[in-house]
Amino acid sequence: MRQASHPPDTPQSLVERIKTWGQALGFQQIGITDTDLSQVEPLLLDWLARGHHGEMDYMARYGVKRARPAELVPGTLSVISARMDYLPESRATLHERLADPAGAFISRYALGRDYHKVLRQRLQRLADRLAAHIGPFGYRVFVDSAPVMEKPLAEKAGLGWIGKHSNLVNPRAGSWFFLGEIYTDLKLPPDRPMRDHCGRCRACLDACPTGAIVAPYQVDGRRCISYLTIELKGSIPEQLRPLIGNRIYGCDDCQLVCPWNRFAQLTAESDFRPRHGLDTATLIALFTWDEPTFLARTEGSAIRRLGHERWLRNLAVALGNAPPSPEVWAALQSRAQHPSPLVREHVAWALTRVG
């Protein structure tokens, strides 16, 4: 039995308190939903059956538990969904960075501190604040760290709609934001979902460099640059390498062209601002990093999970797509005898491109 320290709130007034506390902690929006994901469960199973998850075996490991919150965390009755803006620079600047073939383009979510840590700490503080108000309750915090369908939950919680590129879109904030959840045993009144506003627009489909958005609302992860540069452990398929351009960690193209992102706000979080000049670094400069340098300059960053070997693999591909020059040739030659067969293979491919 929970022991409240003062007269209890109504369920709706408690939700309003949660939203107020969440905004004070730096979240731009908080929404509430129930645990029923029965409408999206078949979509998940179909996506897996098509093999669109590629080598991301963890997507299939838990089966339907991903779409059944109460099976993942028994006793879950409601989900508190939160979003936090992360865009560090203007869209004009983003376009300039991406258009520079000698520059290294890193998906903007990864330029600062690891978002998992930032959001998890804030959500924990939100849960602590709620516990201080109502007494102990059952909950678990998630930030892209377990079999959680965060975008369908956020969509049901009224934070936006899932766009044709599979990202969540908010009509007042675009899509440049992170999501996190608190699974809880509290029975909270849910928010109303938002209707889809993509309409006839297909800008994201047309802009995808590798054609990974195979149909509206369908992404073949095996072709997605984010998958190829982050999730894929081995060799990047040769036919896709020229399409990657200068993108060495992730890809933001579908967000860059989304018309709703004209409403996106720059982040106020210092943790999400670029570190070590990664927003303006050149391919050649990053290719010179040895492993200790890579580990030191990616400490506390989501990029570190990549590892130095795949970091060099991705940079070799990007250098192979760069305008040929003596400097590019020399940089690639410096890694031609690298101990890693994976690095050597991609360097050799790049050398045939710039030679």
Automatic annotation (TrEMBL):
All copies of domain 4Fe-4S ferredoxin-type, residue ranges: 189-218
PROSITE patterns: 4FE4S_FER_1 (PS00198), 4FE4S_FER_2 (PS51379)
UniProt xrefs under InterPro entries: 4Fe4S_Fe-S-bd, 4Fe4S_Fe_S_CS, QueG, QueG_DUF1730
Active site: 144
Named cofactor requirement(s): cob(II)alamin; [4Fe-4S] cluster
EC number: 1.17.99.6
Iron keyword on record: yes
Binding-site list for cob(II)alamin: 66, 144, 168, 179, 226, 251-252
Role played: Catalyzes the conversion of epoxyqueuosine (oQ) to queuosine (Q), which is a hypermodified base found in the wobble positions of tRNA(Asp), tRNA(Asn), tRNA(His) and tRNA(Tyr).
Name recorded for this polypeptide: Epoxyqueuosine reductase
Organism per entry: Thermochromatium tepidum ATCC 43061
Gene name per UniProt: queG
